[in-house]
């Protein structure tokens, strides 16, 4: 049994740090499902995604968020494509999403975190994590501008709402969509985003070492109220891990099994009755439970690569976090 590599998907067969590898996997899967449908827009979207995250897209810096990096979005996109195909194979013709919505789901998944990426005319923000509380709305704006460039302008009103199923800025009951299939696309994109990151081989280390710094810069770890009073929600990366079991339980109850109606079950069609994503999530939780029970933090020793456009992204964000905390204490 080969050990799962840190930048490969749950099946250990697709390198999710490579836009080309994920594009090939998604295209192959879609062509199996819809053999006579053209998927050139998917190829274009993957190329543009890679340019955006690597700092080659006009008007934008590259990705500099260490948790929400290139691998995070590619891993989620692969999960979304699998969910779309699993869903359509499980439903009668009139209920299926079809190839157009399949393309839409992949494009939204690719760019669902585009809102973290700073624009070149922005001189006030030092790292994309500072957009944490507004990044989904910013992603919706990017997607709204992007879709017409690949001949999908008619999907803008749908896509700019659907992307909010990946965040917390808009309550789900406020997301109005005329066609239930569009809402299913949103549920699939939201599901794929969650199960991909929580099943990541290095999910626990990434929460400790990379999500916490983003929480600090994004105003989540130490939020301030309207009167300027600051409270502490997460004291450290270890504190994030201590609260992770409760977070996962809440996500499963309110999102995966709640609003998203257990859509992850449709993956079983593709994996002979198994669900490698949910199995990997449970394995992560079991391992974390043992770490928390014993207090053996050195059990979390993985240091996976980080895929941003910067040379030393983790060191850079740590420096920003230290400066941010010092400034808060000074204030």
Automatic annotation (TrEMBL):
InterPro entries: HD/PDEase_dom (IPR003607). It comes from the Bacteria. This is HD/PDEase domain-containing protein.
